[in-house]
Amino acid sequence: RKAAEEGGTRPAARREAPAFLGTAGGEEGGLSRHRPPVAASRLVSMATDYLPVVPRDLKEARESFYGSEVVGYLSADLGALLREPDPKFWSVCERSQSLHVALDSYLRYAKRPHDRDDDASSLSGSTKVTDCTESAEEQELSRRVFMCYYRMTMPLLDLEGGVEEQKRRGELLYQHSMVDVPKVLDLCAIYGEANPRLVGDLVRNVLELQPRFRADAIDCLRAASINVDRVVEQLLSSEEDFVDLLEHLSYLADALATLCAFLAVYPDAPSLLMEPSTGGGKNGGAENGQKPTELLRFLLRSRACALPKVALALDIAGTEVHGRFRRVYRGADSVVADCLTRCLDPGAGAAEGPRDAGDLLGVLRAAGEAEAAAGTNDGGILAALERDHSLSERVLRAVEAGKASVSKGQATELDAIMGSVAGRPGYFVGCLYPDRGGEGGGNGDAGGKPLADALLEKQVDAVRAILPDYGRGFIAACLRHYGGNAEVCVGHMMEGSLPYELATLDSNLEEVAPAAATAEALTPKNDGDGDGLGYYKRRGRGGGDSDDGLDFGDADLVVKDRILGMYEDDYDDSWGFEKDAVQREDLEDLSTGSGAQGGGQRPSQGKGEKQREFFVYEGKVFNYPKPGATKVTASSAPQALVAARVEEAEAD
Description:
Blueprint: H1 2-5, H2 55-63, H3 69-82, H4 86-95, H5 97-109, H6 120-124, H7 136-152, H8 162-175, H9 181-191, H10 196-209, H11 212-237, H12 246-265, H13 269-273, E1 274-276, E2 290-292, H14 294-314, H15 320-344, E3 355-356, H16 358-374, H17 381-389, H18 391-400, E4 404-405, H19 408-422, H20 427-432, H21 445-466, H22 472-481, H23 486-495, H24 500-503, H25 515-519, H26 554-564, H27 579-596, E5 612-617, E6 620-622, E7 630-634, H28 637-651
């Protein structure tokens, strides 16, 4: 294998060519250097040798026009194997050593997502992207490798003797290392980011088939953490150049990224990150609370202290390795954020009632201690949790929903840890306990309004980051109208489909009105028939009755003009659906009304109705001048169409 990686010959892995291919052109088996065809009729036997891949093969698959012959052969063989029935598939898995060597070779050399840093090429000046771009050939091989492992770990369904057979297969997986912890870690690193659900199912199936994998995983992670700490010490104490330490840095980034990928999909990750606390919680914490495990402390220490120190000591800013470090930062932040979320809301099966914030504080204390020991501002974890995962908002929403309980002492400690990144000093105490002399849980009347206003302020900041041209007060009104759903609010604001109550507000309004003053005004009005669509139906005005259903008042014209402004063509589509009604009704009124009014007078307008100029051309109504159009004055488009036809008749 070493010779193959250096460009020498591949280790002997002979295969017999199918007889129907014959020989041609002097090449063995008649095979060209093109991608070999997939022989659907090829039988899988125990004598089949599955060719392992080396980095040279994967590089050839990405860069060569003809692809890689080895990658094509292995992909074809795995495809044929996956088409076999279950007994045949497992017979090959049990007896073919070359199959597991080939599968393992791909796991060892396949590109990981953390190898594909988006910013690395631009930072380092490199323009070479082929090394991190999978070809269609390699993507097919990657999918079949994963499906082979997934099928090995699938539980048996409705088979006679399935329980005993499942136990036997679990022993085979474990005893023959067909699927072991290092391979599971590689699977998580390669496939976890793009397919977290499938990889999580695979890991869950492995644990069900063989429970001993859990103990092995814990031992493996413990050994990996010790090794990473040693590598960090060597890097910080070494006097060698950055280039000489590149292999150590790559290992450091790869090991931590793989750990984060595993924890992100591991079904029992909470038990690996939190453990029962032996004593009462600090600052009012629950006696039966939990505390961070050594694995979580190691992850926090590596994320907040070790990697920033290494980056600062070796001055790797702007390099490809630093880009990989940033990917590790994001992966670790996601794992810690999920852990904090479970501290606030453990989900189904947990004890009912609000959860004490002592567990949350334990994790934040550990993160704060690790960040303080770093001595650098490169990638603070607390600031990242607030910026990318809205940690303070999650805490306040959990309290508002009754899922978490934060005492005044705990709120004070939260301010001490998170105050500098949450926005202002005393943030949590001010939101949860506005009356500093009060007691209780912060969910009563005294704390409701400030808490709601604080959450609204967070959402306004998020929406304004997307739509900076709108005022804070206007955004707050829209958020209140849509029940705090920022996604729906942004969608309606960008589409210009806000309801009348919001569309008539000043979009530059900066002052945020109190919640009580705006709750009633911004509630969608009901027209009495129970469907809540009163504004979008026919709206009548006092003092005049209209049958056209399109009478707009002065305030309504604001909404209409915004709707019409969404169209870029020269035809006013809003009146097109009235054409048939005009021809059926208004023309009848014209024929009868013209005689009554002395033969050619225009239909009378309602008293007090606002007259506007319309331009009628070829039976269509426009609201701006158009060459050849008839200019008329009317209160609505149908009446303008009738008046234009009267003028055209008079002219004729």
